[in-house]
Amino acid sequence: MSIRITKYRGPALGLTLAAALAALSPVHAAERPASKQENIGVATGFAVGAAAGGPIGAIVGAAAGALMGDRYHKKEVERTALASNLDASESERGKLKNELVQTQLHGEKLGQAIDRTKDLETEVSFRTGDTQLSDVTVARLQKIGSLASSLPDTKVRVSGYADPRGSEALNAALSEKRAAAVAQVLESAGVDTSRLIIESHGESQSSTSEGDLDGYAFDRKVTVRIEREVDGVVANR
Length: 237
Fold this sequence. Notes:
Number of helices: 5
Radius of gyration: 42 Å
CATH superfamily of the largest domain: OmpA-like domain
Helix content: 55-70%
CATH architecture of the largest domain: 2-Layer Sandwich
Largest sheet: 5 strands, mixed
Order of helices and strands: HHEHEHEHEE
Distance between the termini: 118 Å
Structural class: alpha+beta
CATH class of the largest domain: Alpha Beta
Number of strands: 5
Number of domains: 2
């Protein structure tokens, strides 16, 4: 009797192992290759099951080991994905922080430009007796208006002028209408009316000699200037 048991023990264990692997392999073949954790679980479960319950215990142990290994593998995949997402979030946060810093620096530079220079000032020219704006001029004023609307603590000074030809009353009215036309475009670009300072000077600031037609062209204008407001007072240079 003892000789017969010894003779069939090796094949029985081999068949047991084959049965265990065959029972598990279809699941992985249909889904994905077995992970390292699953292979370790199968081997460990097989050994423990065989020691505790013989061939049947080996099959049960291998199956249980595979299940535990699969769960461990999924947890590792989830942990890796979470770490990857966290790294991506940190990277995105860094980009946003850098963009914010760059925006702040840009705003500071614009503020310094307003304080130091007259670079943020432009002029709009008009024909004799005219108050209309060309499409090109409107497009340029819209860009200036967009810039001004994005700068806090600033005012936009719009000043209208006229050449000395004609009556004083007519020139005063012309300069006022020209300034109003320019201010309307700036408002449409986002500049609030409370931030607009509209002035009309007529012919009062003309220094052109009488009969100087070329000089008159420089008198027919509207100036637009972005000025910093400090404590409710606008710096007027």
